[in-house]
Write a structure and sequence with these properties.
alpha/beta, 19 helices, 15 strands
Amino acid sequence: MNNISTGSEDEVNREYKELSLLYGISQVLGRSMDLREVVGPVLNALAEKMGMTRGALTLVNRKSGEIYIEAAHGLSAVQIKKGVYRIGEGVTGKVVKTGQPFVVPHISEEPIFLDRTGARKDLTKSDISFICVPIKIGVEVVGTLSADRLFDESISFKEDVRILSIIASMVAQAVRLRQETQEEREMLIQENLRLQGELKERFHPANIIGKSKGMKKVYDLIAQVSKSNATVLIRGASGTGKELVANAIHYNSLRSNKPLVKVNCAALPETVLESELFGHEKGAFTGATYERKGRFELANGGTIFLDEVGDLSPMVQIRLLRVIQEREFERVGATKTTKVDVRVIAATNRNLEQLIEEGNFREDLYYRLNVFPIYIPPLNERKTDILLLADFFVERYARANNKKIRRICTHAIDMFMSYHWPGNVRELENCIERAVLVSNEGVIYGYHLPPTLQSSAYTGTISYGTLQGEIDNLERDLIMDALKTTRGNISKAAKMLGTSERIIGLRVNKYSIDTRRYST
């Protein structure tokens, strides 16, 4: 069977080169959609198959409006750096603005061809043609693809534009991913800087509430360790404020202008946690479609805070031990070792010594973490801090909810002081937030507090669980509050409440209220 040609030999050769070029580029894009990996081979293929002497792929910076050369063939690093345009400026800027291809048969005869890179200044410009096509995502122009070639009367610029346009559409997806990655990185950097500024002010040790003996010791330890690079282990029950102490250490350290990266070790399963901490290579496991930096890499130069470190699995404990000892690790699926300069602050509410005895925590890791321990006492050991914290939270949530809460009544204060606070500062904060939301009197009364505080052990009354019981509780609160205002004067308290002195006296006896405590 004979092969029948449907065109001239030149046309067949041209079609063969075109198909070969497009097939080669499709293979490159099939291996990776990372623009940094594909743009070089694409431009090299254009030079080889199309006779291109120079070529460039430019991208539009959406934020600044500048058009810059992302990669080029036949241009030096200095020339690439010079190739920056505004939208509408030069041939490249015009293509971005209009979204239409532009052909310059002789660049010496085209006034808007700027040769910003200076790559053609020593050449015979009349012999150089320039073709530039837009790279589009939908209707948005995100960059351009351009090529230089020696002028030849036999060359069809229409065909060159068609081929370049096809290639531009093929690399558009890689360009989109590149721009999204850049924009996401810039947003993360700006957000991190903004948060660092806020956190540096918010979590200064002076802003950690508490004047008890236990908290003064914590402040002293923070001051001693902040300026060093020592590993810190913060211990204390859940809700005591371990994260606040970690923030205070970092933002008063020499690393305060570097990242503070936080990881809750109990919130993620082992397989995910390992990737989160150390990162992974592309293809390291199912779903790893791109390489990813781990939290240790992101914290390089700064601090990493490992919360709930007592919940780490044995395998992750081994890898963590190596990072702390050697300051190096490998990403999941990688063979290359990555070195980092990171300060480690760990926290736990668990008994690590008991975990070691049970074989659930490595003793060598314990000694690496426990270089400088800080213990935060629970709230029931810091009774003098309860009212300071309560006032602070009342002010915060009143402002946040546009409410005017003037004070906390005596009965509510008594309930705060009598309760054992198993949830520590976090539980107190939640109680205050709830009380602020439900109070419409400008005062926090006992009945505004959660049911956990509403028992006879804390109120000194029997809760009947009936309407009469609730009325008795409210009456007792109002009388105690009036006596507080009148410094224990029953007569004045009766006038304030619009009743008789005799009735108030009876109620004082009924509720066993000691008026002498209000007279001082």
